[in-house]
Amino acid sequence: MSSTVASTSAETEPERVAHRDGNVLRWLGGHVGSAVGDNVYFLALSWAAVQAGTPAQAGLVTAASALPRALLMLGGGVVADRYGPRRVVLASTGARTALVLTAAVLLLATGPGLWGLGIVAVLFGVVDAVFLPAAGALPALLAGRDQLARVQAMRGLGTRLANVLGGPIGGLGVALGGTGGAFGLAALLMGASLITLSAVRVRVPAHDAPARRGVLAELRDGLRHIGRDPVLRFLVLSIALNDLGFVGPMNLGLTLLAQERGWGSAGMGLVLAGFGAGAGSASVLLAWRGRVPHAGRVMAASTVAGALAVAALARVPSAAGAAGAALVVGLLAGLSGALAAALVQSNAGAAYVGRVTSVSTLVGYGVAPLTFPLVGWSVARWEAGPVFAVCAGVSALGGVVALVVPALRRAELPR
Asked: What is the Cα–Cα distance from 159 to 389, expressed in whole angstroms?
């Protein structure tokens, strides 16, 4: 891969703080637009599936994207390193836009049933397996290494904003245009993000990429790279354990907890608002503060503390109290997540950032969602409190790994 070039290179420009850099802000706008489009798409998909079948069938349709992501995401990391994250993000965003637009046309024309929706979900998951590693690797090429924590914090803040906006916008799309109209709105948002992202320039990393040897050979090379690095191999394990214990209870688990306690949709919304406020506050703090000293220790401690807060959340009887606990969870999860992502990218090496990102996010995006049926069955069998406690224990192990491994505990972000 060439180390020079391009109208896409930003190396010659004076260094700027990330939140004042127009190029970074353009990327952030494209990221938010894409993430809002994702939220609208998933709302439209779930709504259409509920209208077309039983709740159980709707659950299968909405989970259908997770399996291809889990199976193909590591290959997506190879694609990101081979062709460059920016190019892959643009191509896969175009594919996502076309797929969702096609679904909108089909819904408006024929109203496809569960099989049609399931096929759309699976294809979207296939494209996501390529898009997500590239999108996760792109922030490393936008600003200097000393700005990694800020850029990751801005990405987290953009994701929280998209989660807040996606539901109301998607609901409005369904109300005004039905599910077909909501799919069309999602495609419009994704297409707008494609236009914005096409104006983003990236730094071209100075490295000599090895000759292409096939996807599996390059994947093995990436895995060996992780295994050889004293920080990366345990950092990836820490992130995987944290995601495996965190995603289930804080997604499906919260819905089941609200149902169990009789909080209703209003109480559920209050808890989610608390989590979003906490995570958003952590992102704002990191975007303003920039580099955090003793990043490895801070990440480890916030991971353990966040896991304890998840366990406590299921023991709070009132919705207001649970919202307060969720605020603490969001604050700690936002801090640990942004620091973990920044440490991954600061240690990955320019030639491997796509593959390392795909490995570090595989559990969160691909494997953990597949545990939702187990979480649901366990809550039905033992209630939410014990299930949240067990999941929190798994999540806390991620922090313990970071605390007991000297290289990871002492890891620092670049100055």
From this structure: 27
The pTM is what? Answer: 0.80
Q: Quick one: CA torsion of 92, 284, 324, 270, rounded to 10 degrees?
A: -50
Q: Please give the Cα distance from 273 to 220 (Å, whole number).
A: 41
Residue with tokens 């999860």: 333
Cβ proximity of 122 and 202 under 8 Å? no
- Helix or strand run (H / E) with residue 268: helix 264-289
Residues 157 and 288 in one domain: no
Same domain, 389 and 246: yes
Residue 1 lies in a domain: no
CA distance 295 to 312: 25
User: What is the Cα–Cα distance from 350 to 345, expressed in whole angstroms?
Assistant: 9
pLDDT in tens, 197-237: 999 888 765 454 555 667 788 888 888 888 888 888 899 99
Provide Rg for the chain, Cα atoms. Answer: 21
Write the CA distances from 52 to 99, 101, 106, 182, 271, integer angstroms. 20, 19, 14, 16, 30
CATH number where 127 lies: 1.20.1250.20
Give, for 101, the enclosing helix (H) or strand (E).
helix 85-109
**Spatial CB neighbours of 382, under 8 Å, sequence gap ≥ 6:** none
Task: Render pLDDT for 331-361 as a digit per residue (tens, 0 to 9).
Answer: 999 889 888 988 888 888 778 888 888 888 8
Summary count for the chain: helices (H), strands (E): 16, 0
> How many domains would you assign to the chain?
2
Residues 239 and 151 in one domain: no
